[in-house]
């Protein structure tokens, strides 16, 4: 099969590799659409020790089951594989399983390829009216759905529910959509990149600004850098909640003094539970997350260019979806 | 009346000052016992811009109402004064009231004095079997009661409830007592000061260690420095909760990468709600917070020495209680 292989810092090759080989309990999936995640970019830049070269990256995929009783079934992939029997798994917190794996991290190859192998339990069937591109968005949307759920659960009932989302990338846009689906009306996205901001504004679905002086009961840091955490701890209201997604910088930024004096809660979030993933997929299928039209499609064979353009900040759309078969 | 006046960095005077003068709705309290808090020490060292000299510090007080229909009533004082009508107050989060005041911070003088004035609503009657020294502990105990309540409420139901308390000062000891009162069995206190640790161990009520390799579902940082926050984010289990009390250093220490990958929640906490204060006082009265025998009594007239001894780390007991009338 053809695959995009991460060979080292800022070096990707599109080449023939052995076909993905499903293990017992796994399905072979013909990948029809696969998104580029910020964490793929992080690995591409050599910043993720968990993703050593050579490696097939990519974990936001949808496609079709090949072979077996479910041959031809259209599915979206929950890329998080867990043990199922530890206390975290039994508590429905599969993302905290000590044995968790994710495709695109050894020992599992990723989905920037024509095929990928995946446990059957990780596949969510996709109805015909939903495109593979939309279905591939289930993964990043689930990240934000999960983060927003934790944030809203932690928010004191006595507070008005309004939200600031820091960052207009896919996770930020997905957070705004998850917040709207959860009934939050007043949602502002901060996006400093002029081109990205203009693109999002042109869609007409989001309130996107360059900066704000307001404070909010819930702040979603959808970037994860020291500067964005500083902004989050500045813009959150007393008694409010910061939800943190992203691994931009390992430490720093939070105004702990203010967070202590004003009783602010900070929640680190990572991926999603299996239930959150299923609920997100269902929300996509039901149209509750909007038209999902904030994507740009490119060929997997030209993905090296896509990574270079993303690196330059020259992509307006929050998400590039790669097509392995064009 | 006699009072201890903070005159500038590490400079306290014991002198005659005008008697406290209750405003409308306030009571005059004859102070019988008043504790020294870490925040008094912080102010004494010139580190608290909210407490400029000259000022009477002290906010952990119990005493007797003087004059009026309740003359002679023994009370402990909730030192936090709030507006009562803002959204935070209406939500029962008086500690987040934007107009909140606390005695020992302008415009309110503190309780390191023979008398203090206080709104009647802030007074909790103390039964005769409880000493003024025990009653004066209501304030620091309420800080930890509140912090522990928020932490346990945030803890996922799927996790075992065990706790690490960082710091064996009054807030740490109070946190351990509040945790035990809440039904948590496995509680470890870390205290690096040999003298303090030996003192707490000698009481027989606490599991106090110099260091630990274990992890815990709940970690209470009862110190609030960068190093203690680093320890907290190291010792908390995946999916667990850090509760943060204290204003030692304004920023730094948290391992945000680990907190994100392992979904750790950090809750800044400050003082207590009015309900938490009342519940803490009742728990003291009911004996649910133990014998409260971890105090050392001194005369207010000799408080300058007490501050110097605390500064040197030469006080074994977690709490010094001052007596204004001896």
Automatic annotation (TrEMBL), chains A, B:
SMART domains: PKS_ER. The keyword Cell membrane does not apply. Keywords: Metal-binding, Oxidoreductase, Zinc. Its EC number is 1.1.1.-. One of its GO terms (molecular function) is metal ion binding. The keyword Metal-binding applies. InterPro entries: ADH-like_C, ADH-like_N, ER, GroES-like_sf, NAD(P)-bd_dom_sf, Zn_alcohol_dh. Residues 8-322 form the Enoyl reductase (ER) domain. It holds the Pfam family ADH_N. This is Putative L-galactonate oxidoreductase. It comes from Ruegeria atlantica. The lineage of its organism: Bacteria, Pseudomonadati, Pseudomonadota, Alphaproteobacteria, Rhodobacterales.
């Amino acid at each position: 099969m053809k695959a995009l292989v991460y060979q080292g810092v800022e070096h990707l090759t599109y080449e023939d590799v052995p076909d993905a080989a499903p293990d017992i309990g796994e399905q072979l999936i013909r990948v029809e659409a696969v998104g580029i995640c910020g964490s793929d970019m992080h690995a591409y830049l050599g910043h993720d020790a968990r993703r050593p070269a050579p490696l097939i990256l990519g974990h936001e995929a949808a496609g079709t089951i090949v072979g077996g009783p479910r041959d031809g079934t259209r599915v979206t992939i929950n890329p998080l594989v867990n043990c199922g029997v530890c206390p975290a798994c039994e508590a429905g917190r599969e993302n905290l399983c000590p044995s968790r794996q994710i495709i695109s991290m050894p020992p599992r190859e990723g989905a920037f390829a024509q095929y990928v192998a995946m446990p059957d339990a990780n596949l969510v069937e996709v109805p015909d009216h939903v495109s593979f591109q939309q279905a591939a968005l289930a993964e990043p949307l689930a990240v934000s759905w999960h983060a927003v759920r934790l944030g809203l659960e932690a928010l004191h009932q006595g507070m008005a529910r309004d939200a600031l989302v820091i960052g207009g990338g896919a996770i930020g846009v997905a957070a705004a959509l998850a917040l709207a689906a959860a009934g939050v009306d007043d949602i502002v996205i901060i996006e400093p990149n002029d081109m990205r901001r203009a693109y999002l504004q042109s869609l007409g679905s989001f309130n996107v600004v360059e900066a704000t002086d307001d404070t909010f009961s819930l702040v979603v840091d959808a970037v994860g850098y020291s500067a964005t955490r500083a902004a989050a701890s500045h813009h959150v209201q007393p008694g409010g909640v910061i939800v943190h997604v992203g691994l931009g910088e390992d430490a720093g930024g939070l105004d702990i003094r203010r967070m202590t004096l004003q009783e602010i809660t900070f929640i680190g979030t990572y991926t999603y539970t299996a239930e959150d993933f299923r609920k997100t997929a269902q929300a996509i299928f039901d149209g509750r997350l909007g038209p999902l039209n904030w994507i740009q499609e490119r060929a997997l064979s030209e993905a090296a260019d896509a990574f270079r353009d993303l690196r330059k900040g020259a992509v307006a759309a929050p998400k590039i979806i790669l097509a392995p078969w064009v």
